[in-house]
Amino acid sequence: MTEEVKACMEKQKAQMEAALQYLEKELGRIRAGKASPQMLEGIRVDYYGNMTPLDQVGAINTPDARQIVVQPWEKKMLPVIEKAILAANLGFTPQNNGEVIRITLPPLSEDRRKEMMKKCRAEGENAKVVIRNTRRDANEEIKKLGKDKVLPEDAAKQAEKDIQDQTDKYVAKVDAILAEKEKDIMTV
Questions:
Q1: What is residue 171's predicted lDDT score, i.e. its pLDDT?
Q2: Domains, the chain, ranges and CATH?
Q3: DSSP 36
């Protein structure tokens, strides 16, 4: 395998790995019946005129499997945080008791579980699209090397086969991650 092909394969692998990490991060935000601080990731609050991530204006804890507690560093941030959580439209209502914000997660209904699975599958499909696009880019790079006579034809064919094998491996990883999340969501 030439240096050009190795570089192409390494670049492809790094991009596919990034797609997997992004998928896992996005699936972490989708709740599966148990509370997680990741569910509030991405929520931004107005902190003195700056949109700041929620975890930078308060502590986020999960005292039990059905509850998330947000304790702001400053008490005057309570209504702002409450408003931001409501605006995020995550499917639960925060309760402000003057000290902390409590979010009690309702048990998931069958319809809600199915809706969440659709969301998970959509995220999985997005990851697969990124992986396939990476494969296409790598194949184009290999074909260019073949046209420029840098790479012999049989080496180009072998490189394309290796790229396809790597793509199949990553698509299988996406399917495994989705299967695990589906099992997690559907467990009552």
A1: 94
A2: 3-29+109-186 (1.10.132.20), 37-104 (3.30.1360.40)
A3: -
Q: Other CB atoms closer than 10 Å to residue 99's CB: what's the count?
A: 11
Distance CA 113, CA 166 (A): 32
CA distance 130 to 127: 5
Higher-scoring residue by pLDDT: 151, 103? 103
Backbone angles phi, psi at 38, to 5 degrees: -60, -25
What is the average pLDDT across 46-65? Answer: 87
- 19 CB-side CA count, 13 A: 26
Distances (CA, A) of 105 to 17, 32, 73, 97, 142: 32, 10, 23, 17, 50
The candidate with the shortest Cα–Cα distance to 15, out of 102, 132, 108, is: 132
Extended beta strands in the chain, E state: 44-47, 50-53, 58-64, 67-72, 94-96, 101-104
**Which residues have CB under 8 Å from 66's CB, separation 6+?**
34, 35, 104, 105
- Given a cut of 70, whether residue 31 has pLDDT beyond it is no
Asked whether residue 16 carries a pLDDT value surpassing 90, the answer given is yes
Mean pLDDT for all residues in the chain: 86
